[in-house]
Design a protein that fits this description.
By secondary structure, this protein is α+β, with helices and mostly antiparallel strands. It contains eleven helices and 16 strands. Strands 6-10-11-16-15-14-13-12 form an eight-stranded mixed β-sheet, with helices on both faces. The chain binds one RNA strand through strand 1, strand 2, helix 2, strand 11 and strand 15.
Length: about 450
RNA sequence: GGGGGCGUGGUGUAGCGGCUAACAUGCGGCCCUGUCAAGGCCGAGACCGCGGGUUCGAAUCCCGUCGCUCCCGCCA
């Protein structure tokens, strides 16, 4: 018999159907049993008159909450039933899998355990529809990104995550045994994205894993996360990248709101706002002035960088000045940016780079890249890098490479900001951190 | 790596120098009822993270340790 989704039962009144799902609640009475069954589309009440089959009634009585059942029965319109005004009158029941009792984590308890305990029992935690909703939103968001890229002639790439030599600084790399030698887990697809530019791909994107060996204990860091990266050729400056990004994000927010707006309001209390473009842009020098005006004291050792508290202060300023949730912090000093960021011809101390701050948290870093071999090599040396280890990368720029730029964004950080989640661990399927490798 | 906070039945909390450790929820049993966040009664379940100290007396105070968490650093 064909399966009917619980969410579609209304259109099957009077028919015999088969449903599958978890037994969320059993109300076991003297003459009747009411089973609340849940599948991915919703909940339904199943009614059973015990007198119909005493043995079956007895079997049902022993079922622990969250057991998996297949039920056939007639769908009956019944306004008395508070759950959707209909019920399935049970004809047969098959237990697919019994759930032990008590559950270590009851997904439908009034109080939700701490995040760490929830991660121990993540598959039970994820049975809550609010959790599933996060990943439905993520799915739509990723689809919207792809839609936008494909509309703009992008090529999707998948760069390797095992690397033979440390790229960039090397401090935050995971080292792994690789046969007789050592390999490193990619902490960014940066070099390979640029290689695609040298290959003449012109516009590429990648959604893939990124590894950072940073022992960071915060609500927004992970040691493995999904990076959304893109790179485009023939730009004049980082401004072109920012324009592309803001329009793409507006598209993504618009699609997510269209598909999940109601659910997001209901489950997360967030009235999703599709951001208007262009986003406010604040050059670093101006940002420092604003912080001064706002009375925010930057730590003395910061030297032109801005700490998270400063970013939040700027966000509040942007919110009250422009009523916008996003802003670009642009033109960062070379001291706090990697060697491959291009510098202004007339201001060699300043990079053509930006961060995107959403609701006070950094979610994107981007820049125009330096594509001129000699200058790139010079900047690398200046930053104390060994040319030898990055020679393969420098070679990309020896036989013709278009001017280009791009960005990297944290998927979970975006989701966290979008749904106003308190912790990135909520926004990722399975969290990986310095102290968390399981499940 | 530095700093703050928290560790009490399965879970979430209360208690913060005299506790035979309380409440909610869950779990088990019984009763009642077309139930529906069901209701009622009974019951099991915690040597209060661990180790040491102060005290007549410690879940409560102190020190150490471990775990978790948040902030900073770093970043997406």
């Amino acid at each position: 018999m064909q399966r009917t989704f619980i969410g579609d039962l209304r259109s099957h009144i009077g028919e015999k159907v088969q449903i599958h799902g978890f037994l969320q609640t059993l109300r076991d009475q003297k003459k009747m049993q009411f089973l609340i069954v849940r599948d991915q589309t919703g909940l339904v009440q199943v009614a059973f008159w015990k007198a119909n089959d005493a043995a079956l009634a007895e079997q049902i009585s022993t079922l622990g909450a969250e057991s998996v059942v297949t039920i056939t029965g007639a769908v009956v319109d019944n306004p008395v039933v508070k759950l959707g005004g209909l019920e399935v009158q049970l004809e047969s029941l098959q237990v697919e899998s019994t759930a032990g009792s008590p559950l270590p984590l009851d997904p439908f308890a009034e109080t939700i355990p701490s995040i760490d305990y929830r991660l121990d029992w993540r598959y039970l935690d994820m049975r809550r529809p609010q959790v599933a909703a996060i990943f439905q939103v993520q799915t739509t968001a990723e689809q919207a990104f792809r839609e936008y890229w494909l509309q703009h002639n992008f090529i999707e790439v998948h760069s390797p995550k095992l690397m033979g030599s440390p790229s960039e600084s090397g401090a935050e790399l995971f080292e792994v045994q690789y046969f007789e030698t050592k390999a490193y887990l990619a902490q960014s697809p940066q070099f390979y994205k640029q290689m695609a530019m040298a290959a003449g791909f012109e516009r590429i994107f990648e959604i893939g894993p990124v590894f950072r060996a940073d022992p960071s204990f915060t609500s927004r860091h992970m040691t493995e996360f999904t990076g959304i990266d893109m790179e485009i050729s023939y730009i004049e400056s980082h401004e072109d990248v920012m324009v592309f990004l803001e329009n793409m994000l507006a598209h993504v927010y618009s699609r997510v709101k269209e598909v999940h707006g109601e659910k997001i309001k209901e489950m997360f209390g967030v009235d999703l706002v599709v951001p208007t473009t262009p986003f406010p842009r604040i050059p670093m020098t101006r940002a420092l002035e604003i912080l001064k005006e706002e009375g925010y004291q930057l730590p003395a050792e910061k030297k032109g960088d801005i700490d998270p508290g400063g970013e939040r202060t700027l966000y509040n300023w942007v919110k009250k000045t422009y009523n916008h949730d996003f802003f670009y912090l642009t033109d960062w000093p070379i001291a706090v940016r990697p060697f491959y960021h291009m510098r202004y011809a007339d201001r060699p101390e300043v990079t053509k780079s930006f961060d995107l701050i959403a609701n006070g948290t950094e979610i994107v870093t981007g820049a125009q890249r330096e594509h001129r071999y000699d200058i790139l090599a010079k900047q690398a040396v200046e930053k104390g890098l060994s040319l030898e280890t990055i020679q393969f990368y420098l070679d990309f720029f020896r036989y013709g490479c278009p001017p280009h730029g791009g960005f990297g964004m944290g998927l979970s950080r975006l989701l966290m900001m979008m749904l106003n989640l308190p912790n990135i661990r909520e926004a990722v399927f399975l969290f990986r951190g310095p102290n968390r490798l399981n499940p």
